[in-house]
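Recap quiz, item 2
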Amino acid sequence: MRASAQPLPRILGQIKPRPRWREARLLAIVAAAILAGSVSLELARHSDETAATAGFSPAEPFHLAVYLGVLVAAHLAQVLTGRRTDQVLLPAVGLLGGISLLLMERLPQDLVVQRFFGAELGLADVQLVWLVLSISIATTLAIVVRSDRWLRLYKYTWAAAGVALLLLTFVLGTEINGQRLTLSFGPISGQPSELLKVILVVFLAGYLSENRSLLVEESTQIGPIAIPPLPYLAPMVAMWAIALGIVVVQRDLGAALLFFAVFLLLLYTATARPGYVVLGVLLFLAGAFVMYQLVSHVQTRVDIWIDPWKDPAVTGYQVIQALYAFARGGLVGSGLGGGIPTTIPAVETDFPFAALGEELGLVGIMAILGLYLVVIERGLRIGAAAGDDFRSLLATGLALVVGVQAFIIAAGNLKLIPLTGITLPFISYGGSSMLVNGIVVGLLLALSDKGVEPPPAPKPPGRLARLTRRGA
Amino acid sequence: MDGFTATIWIVRLLFLALLYLFLFGIARALLRDLSAASREPTTELGRLVVLASPAGEPAPGSTLALDAITTLGRDVNNAIVVDDQFASAQHAVLTFRGRTWYVEDLNSTNGTFVNAQPVDGVVPIGYGDEIQLGQVRFRLERPRR
């Protein structure tokens, strides 16, 4: 018996502009903050001149104008199309992006040089391009996506595409700094593991929402303790194996940690059974121990973490310089342009948090962590208000991906956990990361829209579920 | 400290202050949301949306709020009266236990179906699942906030 008479999908209707005052107000503060940061950066560049010859002007006014213009355009586009999406997410992400732009303007421009049609673009120019593209993607998705069928129905296709992407990177990837992460086709190159995290969340949301009641209900008795059902642990073991594979083949500790953490968090969100988390953490500890024994790359990272001063000139150099940077920053930092963040190798991709810690101080990085907290809070709120389990888990997962990634790299910078080379979302330099985070924000905005199509009627449970459902 | 240094530090601290002003603005928005949400009582645990009902009782397309124990059937003493010739007097009962909804078939003549699977005993159901009694189909949805 298939559902024949679904409720009619809401017809798009005429497009009616709808004001978004809260977003407008928050964006005004964002613009003022970025402007103030930019002026302070420009002043710092003139600090070697005698006194007040330098007037008040923002650094790189063109960059600033383009970036603020794009934020306003994103706001206006949603106002004009009358979308009732979340109004806090765009300003929060916009402020993180603005901080990123300020940081990239502040770093030496020759860290990254790319040539497009004869024009030579420096670090801040390229980052501005990625930021603009990222916000455009987010806005486009927020406006265009009116239904989640293309994600919901093809979850196994998405998963297969993700695995294919992973295998392709295993085989064809180029090795950079001992990590096989980058996939290049001619002039285009990217890091598939960034995209993979979104695909993983889509698949997990689909799989868990379909099998939720089974995972909640069933349990296996071993002696006196009831553990979660063994057949349904297969995906967990598979996920664990994939994470270990990423560590061994790609040597990408960050992505492996991110994937496994997000998987466990979503499993817990879907089932509310702490048993899964305990089992997952035990698996993680076992895997981490074996990897530490077998893989030299892991061993190096952990040894640096335990004692970077054992080899301060070579392996520990980066971490030690980051710690010094935080120390130099103190409470309110040295001000934008006042520090020496270039002493840290790979500061624009792996250590932007340390650079910001130096120049904005403890006060500044607390604010940045607060911004990530806002992004997570919005995602969880969107998930709690969503119409059904799939949307709920999808929104939760997308927010957690951003949050967990920010935690992993910020904690790595602070030597709280071993350093892993993943990007700080919305702040690190990098195209793949920016674009994928744009997709994440766009999907969250689309999921938060109160006017989207209602969830489709459920399908009969899968064959496995039918066979094992008790008493059926 | 000369004038230039003072100026640059004022701008720098202004930047940091604006970051916190932004966070403060968001915190205020959140508190307003929360107080608005707490003003309207949400004792609702879930809702049933009527997808199909040939006899018109319950009306197709209508939304029914659910109590923790909601009985369904043709008898007028049920919480939700299902006027359908294939429905039994006491047909099924929906119960909310802890954090999940369960449906139980009360030995009805024609059975209760969840997502087109016959219900035997007590079966957990999730939001978005479809329940069928006779020719009447419902979908369980989250309570509106």
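Chain B touches chain A through 50 residues (CB under 8 Å).
Chain B has one helix and eleven strands.
End of item.
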